[in-house]
Amino acid sequence: MSRRLPRWVRALALHGGLALAVALPLSAQRTHVLLVIGLSGEPQFKRAFEASAQSARDAAKNRWGVSDSSLIVLTEDSVRTALSSGRSTRENIAQAFLRLSSRVQPGDVLFVMLMGHGSGEGAQSKVNLPGPDATAAEYASWLAGFGKQQVVFVNAATGSGDFVPVLTAPNRVVVTATKTSNERNESVFLQYFAGALGMDAADADKDGRLSVFEVFRFARTEVGKAYTSSNRMQTEHALVSDSLLASRVAFGKTAASADPRIAALLAERQALESEVASLRTKKASMTAAAYEAELERLLLALAEKTQAIRAAGGSK
């Protein structure tokens, strides 16, 4: 939708420090998280997958403010642990989506991340699970009920690239560790992506929030460094389905300022961001002209507010 906005509006938004578009604030939405660890096969993979899931879980709880009732972690273990909410069977994954569907509201964010070993092709691509595997087509069917939310689906398993064309849909960002199902060698993307979810270093624009694209870009860069430092040919190439939407969806809270003038301006900008989030939920009930006119007004106001914050000595 923002691609149809006049160029001068997009340019001003960029100049004002908005990362390609407005990053949606958590004050205007809630975040719900589903983390799924598939079969590890070997102890070192089990440790690595669980460490990454713990990193993502900690980020969700401590940085994003996700409530326990909106945070589900499924692992390969048949016995529940401090990390696990249950076993990562196909049936339990389906139930997790059903449970979350009863909690999400229009405009909320659903974050899903798969970890493990992948295989298959096209709609039959999968991540290995205890018992029957769920296919990419099945994940697409489970996500179909979240059309009024922003969905971030991360398949950080090997051979995950074919999930992108199967799952791509409006208001949905799909991230995969590889560009095709043929990149099946051991992948390091997961550890860098999961780690970045809670790292200030990944916050490129230093606004106190992490957009999906910031996390993706940081992880992709670190993957390249890892292969270069070990003098290996890179055998994994991460993909993101929609960099523009990935730049809008962000996690974390905007940092407060000790300067009351800047704090007031930040609050005013946050209110405008909330208006953008609310407007997005009304798009289907508005004419295209009315929607774009209101969005243009809000983006211009946001850009001007960001300029005012910088002029007052703020860094956001």
Mean pLDDT across the residues is: 87
CATH topology of the largest domain: Rossmann fold
Q: Beta-strand level of the residues, as a percent range?
A: 5-15%
Give the N-terminus to C-terminus distance in angstroms: 25 Å
| CATH architecture descriptor text of the largest domain | 3-Layer(aba) Sandwich
Specify the helix fraction band: 40-55%
- Helix segment count? 10
Structural class: alpha/beta
Number of domains: 2
Report on the biggest sheet. Answer: 7 strands, mixed
Tell me how many strands there are: 11
Coarse shape: globular
Strand order of the largest sheet: 3-2-1-4-7-8-10
Broad CATH class of the largest domain: Alpha Beta
| Low-confidence parts | 8-28
Radius of gyration: 20 Å
Give me the strand/helix succession.
Answer: HEHEEHEEEHEHEHEHEHEHH
Give a description of the structure.
The protein contains 10 helices and 11 strands. The chain has 2 domains: 2-21 and 257-311; 26-251, Rossmann fold (3-Layer(aba) Sandwich). A hairpin with a 6-residue loop joins β5 (118-119) and β6 (126-127). The chain has 316 residues and is of the alpha/beta class. The strands form 3 sheets. A 7-stranded mixed sheet has the order 3-2-1-4-7-8-10, sandwiched between helices. The chain has a two-stranded antiparallel ribbon with strand order 5-6. The chain has a two-stranded antiparallel sheet with strand order 9-11. The chain has helices spanning 7-15, 43-63, 90-101, 136-143, 163-167, 189-196, 212-229, 243-248, 260-281, 288-311; strands at 31-37, 71-75, 86-87, 109-115, 118-119, 126-127, 150-155, 172-176, 210-211, 239-240, 250-251.
